[in-house]
């Protein structure tokens, strides 16, 4: 190869490298202006963009696993009858872990729901079923996502009832819905639970005033530990509460500027576009005055368009658990409600449970989170830890509570209520 040929070859290689570099640079500039909102959903371009952004930023889809709400009531038909558990955290969590895959398979083919009557629902309860009951009416897209399948219809339910015949029932705020699905099969599951029955199984009318899915454990005797309350006292360095961990949960530096409030009973931390109010009684309030002050929950490259609800729920649940850990609180936070305001703000409401039993404290919720798109704009937490008071109290058996229920198709529940001495005692309640 002579010198001229060699020179031409080197020029051609240099031009090729330069051209390739310009193409790559142009693609990067184009991708920087692209978002999931600007490409067709489920298209090849959407999936390619999603892959590229994950690779650049290291994002991970946060779906399934550690759901923000598990059922407080579970029942399943076995060879010798119905068995289950309710308001017992360890037992319901074990049953949920065993049976969630079976319930999740019901959403594999995107069921189409239509209205049905309470009589239809009650009749289904008398057959072979798998039943999940939740404390609040939650979006079906969240419940199905935690069960391993995406389902995006705007429905809210507090019940998932799967029959062995292949029907899935919901109980919504407007009534009952049913859809044909893949027949449920749980015969191979290893299940250990107490014998029980649904109120619908009694035909003598003794449980006529409760919802047909009310679980009754005949011969039930139960005593529950009374609880005392411990508040965090974040501003007291000797209290044992970890203020730094709480601040980190909200992405605040411990040395950020601030000022005292409420006669020294609280401290207000101030960032450029947000404030964090921390009180000794456990009240923690975050508020952003502008979008730039909100906490980032996700970016366009992290999810497809319909996944925002689940990422918001997971973000709120994780933040709340971190805040609880800052005062060594071993209770559980449970998502109870999700609403959306006229301006598009989503509000997530959480309750607190101890041993699977919800705690009621007046009208104020345990925690509320307000999201605007990809940003957490406000949050209010009422942190407190519950400890055994050393006294156990008997609880009215569920069968008696169901028989004595007032008219109105209510459901018998169990909740901790505050007594005159400030301690909390578990009592039977009625919910619609």
- State the major sheet: 10 strands, antiparallel
In helices, the fraction of residues equals 10-25%
Average residue pLDDT: 86
Q: How far apart are the first and last residues' alpha carbons, in Å?
A: 90 Å
Say what oligomer this is: single chain
Question: What form results from the Cα inertia axes?
Answer: flat
Number of helices: 8
How much of the residues is beta strand, in percent?
A: 25-35%
Number of strands: 24
Q: Which structural class fits the helix and strand makeup? A: alpha+beta
Write the layout of secondary structure elements.
Layout: H1 3-32, H2 44-57, E1 73-78, E2 81-86, H3 89-105, E3 114-116, H4 118-125, E4 129-139, H5 140-146, E5 156-163, E6 167-172, E7 175-180, E8 194-195, E9 197-198, E10 215-216, E11 222-230, H6 243-249, E12 258-261, E13 266-270, E14 274-279, E15 283-288, E16 295-296, H7 308-325, E17 332-340, E18 346-354, E19 357-359, E20 367-372, E21 375-382, E22 385-395, H8 398-403, E23 411-418, E24 424-431
Antiparallel strand pairs: 1-2, 1-4, 2-8, 3-7, 4-5, 5-6, 6-7, 9-10, 11-22, 12-13, 13-14, 14-15, 15-21, 16-21, 17-18, 18-19, 18-20, 20-21, 23-24
Which tags fit this structure?
432 residues; alpha+beta; 10-stranded antiparallel β-sheet; 8-stranded antiparallel β-sheet; 24 strands; 34% strand; flat
Describe this structure in words.
The chain is an alpha+beta fold and 432 residues long. The chain has helices at residues 3-32, 44-57, 89-105, 118-125, 140-146, 243-249, 308-325, 398-403, and strands at 73-78, 81-86, 114-116, 129-139, 156-163, 167-172, 175-180, 194-195, 197-198, 215-216, 222-230, 258-261, 266-270, 274-279, 283-288, 295-296, 332-340, 346-354, 357-359, 367-372, 375-382, 385-395, 411-418, 424-431. Strands 12, 13, 14, 15, 16, 17, 18, 19, 20 and 21 form a ten-stranded antiparallel β-sheet that branches. It has an eight-stranded antiparallel β-sheet with strand order 3-7-6-5-4-1-2-8. A hairpin with a 2-residue loop joins β6 and β7 (175-180).
């Amino acid at each position: 190869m002579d010198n001229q040929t060699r020179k031409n070859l080197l020029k051609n290689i240099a031009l090729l490298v330069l051209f390739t570099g310009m193409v790559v640079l142009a693609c990067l500039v184009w991708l920087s202006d692209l978002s999931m909102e600007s490409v067709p959903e489920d298209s090849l371009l959407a999936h390619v963009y999603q892959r590229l952004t994950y690779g650049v930023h290291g994002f991970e889809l946060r779906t399934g696993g550690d759901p923000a709400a598990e059922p407080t009531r579970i029942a399943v038909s076995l060879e010798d009858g119905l068995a289950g558990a309710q308001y017992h955290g360890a037992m319901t969590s074990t049953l949920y872990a065993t049976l969630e895959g079976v319930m999740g398979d019901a959403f594999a083919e995107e069921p189409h729901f239509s209205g049905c009557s309470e009589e239809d629902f009650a009749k289904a309860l008398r057959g072979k079923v798998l039943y999940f009951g939740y404390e609040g009416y939650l979006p079906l897209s969240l419940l199905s996502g935690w069960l391993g399948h995406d389902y995006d219809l705007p429905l809210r339910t507090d019940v998932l009832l799967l029959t062995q015949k292949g029907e899935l029932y919901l109980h919504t705020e407007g009534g009952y819905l049913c859809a044909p699905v893949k027949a449920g099969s749980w015969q191979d599951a290893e299940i250990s639970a107490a014998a029980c029955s649904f109120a619908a199984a009694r035909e003598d009318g003794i449980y006529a005033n409760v919802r047909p899915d009310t679980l009754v454990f005949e011969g039930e005797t139960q005593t529950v530990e009374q609880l005392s309350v411990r508040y965090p006292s974040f501003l007291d360095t000797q209290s044992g509460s970890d203020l730094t961990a709480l601040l980190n949960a909200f992405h605040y530096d411990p040395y950020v500027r601030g000022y005292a409030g409420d006669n020294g009973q609280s401290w207000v931390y101030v960032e450029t576009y947000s404030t964090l109010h921390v009180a000794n009684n456990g009240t923690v309030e975050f508020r952003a005055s502008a979008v730039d002050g909100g906490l980032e929950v996700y970016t366009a490259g992290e999810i497809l368009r319909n996944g925002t609800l689940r990422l918001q729920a997971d973000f709120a649940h994780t933040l709340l658990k971190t805040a609880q850990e800052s005062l060594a609180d071993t209770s559980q936070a449970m998502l109870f409600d999700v609403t959306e305001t006229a301006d598009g703000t989503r509000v997530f409401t959480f309750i607190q449970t101890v041993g699977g039993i919800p705690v009621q404290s007046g009208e104020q919720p345990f925690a509320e989170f307000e999201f605007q798109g990809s940003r957490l704009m406000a949050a209010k937490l009422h942190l407190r830890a519950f400890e055994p008071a050393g006294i156990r109290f008997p609880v009215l058996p569920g069968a008696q509570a169901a028989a004595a229920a007032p008219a109105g198709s209510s459901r018998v529940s169990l909740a901790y209520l505050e007594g005159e001495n400030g301690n909390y005692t578990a009592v039977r309640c009625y919910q619609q």
